Amino acid sequence: MRFKASIQNITTFTKLTASLNSLGPLAWVKLSDDQVCFTIIPEQGTQVWAALSIDTIFETYTVQSAANNVINLEVPLGPLNRALKSALNATSAQIRLTKKDNMPLLALTIVTTSSSNTYSAFPTGGANDDGFDAPFDDLGGGGNRETIITQEVPVRVLGPDVVSGLHEPQCREPDVHIILPPLMQLKSISDRFTKLALAGARTGAGSSAARTRLDMAANMHGCLKMSIKTDAMSISSVWTDLSNPELDPSQVAGGTIGIAEHPSTRMKLLGSADGRSDQGWASVRIDGRDWGKVMSVGRLGGRVIACFCHEHALILYVYLPTDNGEDESVLTYYVSSYSA
Amino acid sequence: MVVLNFTLTPEAASEIHDLLVCLGKFSDTVAIEARRERFTFTALNSSKSAYAAATLVGKQFFSTYECVPTQGGPDGRFTCSIYTRALLSVFKARLHDPLGRDGAISRCEVSVQENANTCRFIVKMVCNQGVIKTYKLTYEAVDVMHALFDRNMAKNRWSMRAGGLREYVEYFGTRTEMLDIFSGEEGDGRVVFKSFTEKISNGKEVLKHPLVTAVAVNTSDFEEFNVQPGMHIIISVKDFKAIVIHADTLKTSVKAFYSQPTRPLQFSYGSDGLLCEFTLMTSGDYNGPATAPTPAPQIPSRLASRAQSATDSRSMPPPTSPASRRSARRQAAPRKASSPKPQPDPESLFVNQDEEEDSRWEPLDHNEEETLGWDAAADRDAGSFPTFRDSGSFSKVEVATTVGADGMEGIAPSQRVSQVKGLW
Known about the structure:
The complex is a heterodimer of chains A (about 350) and B (about 425). Chain A has two domains: about 1-115 and about 145-165, Proliferating Cell Nuclear Antigen (Box), CATH 3.70.10.10; about 175-335, Proliferating Cell Nuclear Antigen. Chain A has nine helices and 18 strands. Chain A has helices at about 10-20, 55, 75-85, 160-165, 185-205, 210, 255-260, 265-270, 290-295; strands at about 1-5, 25-30, 35-40, 45-55, 60-65, 70-75, 90-100, 105-115, 145-155, 155, 175-180, 215-220, 225-230, 235-240, 280-285, 305-310, 315-320, 330-335. Chain A has a nine-stranded antiparallel β-sheet. In chain A, strands 5-1-7-8-9 form a five-stranded antiparallel β-sheet. The model of chain A is unreliable at about 115-145 (pLDDT under 50). Chain B has three domains: about 5-140, Proliferating Cell Nuclear Antigen (Box); about 155-325 and about 345-350, Proliferating Cell Nuclear Antigen; about 365-424, no CATH class. Chain B has helices spanning about 10-25, 60, 85-90, 160-170, 235-250, 320-325, 330, 355-360, 395-405, 415-424; strands at about 5-10, 30-35, 40-45, 50-55, 65-70, 80-85, 105-115, 120-125, 130-140, 155-160, 180-185, 190-195, 210-220, 225, 230-235, 255-260, 265-270, 275-280. In chain B, the strands form three sheets. In chain B, strands 6-2-3-4-18-17-16-10-14 form a nine-stranded antiparallel β-sheet. In chain B, helix 4 packs across helix 5 (about 235-250). The two termini of chain B are about 45 Å apart. Classes of the chains: A alpha+beta (about 350), B alpha+beta (about 425). The interface between A and B is large, with 39 and 46 residues.
C-alpha cells in the first residue's frame, strides 16, 4: 500500500479540511487513481460527500494498493488541518502514508525558508556575561534558512469491507434548484437569527434545539427565503433575483421528457419573482447551528447550488473553482429537513 | 519595617506584564525577593519540575529603586509571595501605549507597607490627565527558594534568536506534552525539535493521538551551537512555549545550557536590566543512543535545592555542596533519598521525590503550633478523642496555605488541643 503526493494547493487543502472539520472530527478519505474523496458522516447533522479531482490539491500523485489501487483511510481532520496550516508558507509540501511502530500515519514533510527576523542583527546582550556574545553572523545570510517540518497525523486504514457499507444518500428529484447568494451574507444572517432565537430561549421554556430551527425556502423564480419563528418573534429575509440554473438534458434521467416531467418544471408555474406569493415555495426546516457549520464551506469560495426537496431535504452542491474548467471538484452536503 | 519603593516607566510596567504572563504559566503565585540592588520574581511549578527566576536590576530596569530590608545588612532581603493573577489584574496589558489610549499610564509607583497587622503591596498607576489608580495587594511573607544550576557542568550550549524559536513552536500541534531537542549525529548539521505525546492508545483512540511535529533546523541557524552529537533531551512543550513567547517580546536571544538528560537544563535570556533564567527538569534518552555520561556529582539530580539567601544561581554553590550544608533535620532523611536516581520512565518530566523531599519545598510554616482538626468521619472507636484528631490537621494546614484567600470552605481550627483536653 503506497500513497505519496506533493501538495500543490496548500491553501485549498487547508480550507477544505477546516470546513469539513466543522461538521465532524473524522473523515473517510478514499484515495484512488482519478479522485480523492472526503466523506464526513457525523452521528447527527449534515453529511458531506466530497469528490475532488487529483489536481485540485495534489500533483505528482501515486497511489497503489492490492485493492484496485484504492486506499481508504480514516483521518482525524483537526490534526490534519493543524499540520497543513504549518505548510501555508512552505516552499514545498509532501504527504505520504507511512508506518511508525506499526501505526499507520500520514506524514507531511514541509520545507520552509524561515522569514528572517532582522532584530538580532544588533544583539541585545543585557547584563549577561556568561562567556559568549551573540555573533554578528546573521547580517549576511538572511534569506536561505531552510527548515524542514515533519508532521505526523495518525490514521486508520479501512478495509474494503468496512467502507462497502457506506453509501451516499439517495434523494428524489428536487422541487427547486437555485444558486445561493454569497455564503458570507447567508451565514451572517442565519447566525444572527440563531442567536436571537437562542437569546429568547434562555428566558422562555422549551428545548433550544426546537428554537433554532430555521425555515429555508426557495422558488423557481430566483427567490430564497430564510425565516425563524419563536413564541416571541418571527423574522425572515428574502433574496430575489437569484438564478435557477437550467437543467442539462444529458444529466437528467429521461432526457428532454425527463425535464418536462421534472418537479422543478411544475414549480416554475407557481409563485412569482418578487417573492410575495405564497405559492411555489419548496421549504425545509433545518437546525440553525448545524447550518452555521455547513456555511463554513464558504471559505473555499465555490459556486453553490441548493436543491430543495420540499419538506424532505436540502442538498448543496459546492463547485470548487478550477483552473482548467474541466474535472470539477464537488462537495455535496446532505441536510435533512425536520418534520414539522 | 522594610522599605521598598520603586518607580517604573510605562515600558517597564508593560514588560512586567509580559513577564507575569509568562510566570503565570508556571505557577499561580510568584515569589518576590527584593534586595538592595535588584528585584527578583520567582515561580516554581506544582510538580517542582520547572523553576523560573526573573531578575530586574535596580538601577537599570527601574526609574528609581530603593530597598532597605529590615535585617541582614547589605545582604538582607525582603521576600513575599503574591497571586500571579492579582498582580496581572494590576499590571494589565497595554500599560504602555504611545498613543495614550485607555489604560495607558505615565508611570507606576510601587511601595510596600508592612506592619504588625497588614502586609500590603501598593501599586499606584499614574495615568494621563492626572488620574491615579491605587491598588493594594495582600502578600504573604514566605521564604524564597532558588533552584541551583551549575553552568560549569552544563557543557552543552546553544543560543538562538527567540523569534526563530517562536516560529518553530508555532508549528507544534496543540495538546502535545513533550519536546525532544535532538542534536543530530556528527556532521549532520541539524537539530530537531520534536513535539510529541507519549501515550499508548489503541483501536479508535489512535486517531485522538495528538500530532507529532518535528522541526529540523540547521545548526547554522543558531547563533551558537555546541552540543554533544546524538543527544536527546526532553522537556515540557508548555514550558518551552511560555519561555520562547516571552523571550520574543524582548526581541532577544535564548541561551540554553545543559549537561545530560535527567539533569536540569537552563534557558537564559535578558535585555536592559531584565534577566530571565528558567531551570527545567529534563528526562531521558528518548529512543536515542546511549550518551556517554559526563561525570556527574553523586547527588540526585534535583531540579533545585533550598539555598537560603543564595544570591544568584551562577554564584550559588554547585549541586554537590548542599549535601554538606544540609540542616540536621534534613540529614535525618532516609539515606536512599540522596542516591542517584536515573529516571526509568522517559515519559516523566518530574523529579523522583519522596515525601521528605517534597516537604522541603513547602513554604515555611510560621504558625507551627498544634492545631485542631475536625474528623468528619466521626469514627467513635478511633481513640481517646472521639471527635477530634490531631493527626488529621496536617493536610488541612496545607490546604489553607495553598488555597489561601479564596479557600474559605474549610472550618478553621478554633481551639488548641491542649485547651480541649481539660474539657474531656
